[in-house]
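WARN retry 2 of 3 for item q-0093 after timeout on previous attempt; input resubmitted unchanged.
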Amino acid sequence: MIRLSTIAALFALLLNSAFAAEDTGDYQPDTFAIAAEGTELTATISKLSGISPYFHLYDINGKLIEVLPNPHLDLEYGIGPAVATTLADKGATALVGGMVGPKMEDALNARNVRFIRRNGTVNDVVTELKSE
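OK item q-0093 returned
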């Protein structure tokens, strides 16, 4: 399980990168995507992020932006990279989930989306966002 200090350090990095991007005119608000098994706050974080049925999108203050059903579950292959592209297009700068495959990891890295390995519930992550 990721420690609170690790999450805090990631938030600090994201804030610093957001302000640096603002200077170049490319600023987008930080959005965290949480791979989840359901639509509720009590939903379990998905073990396999690419085939997660839902993604909860929150801002850096823990405010819900939207719950996005995974639009790529009907693909035979390439689900992970397609999900990475969708989340990046939604403005996600971090993805919280159980694990990602190597192709999804490459796609996330190419789009500057950090992956945070985590288990528990959506509420656990939101609580940490709000406490920072």
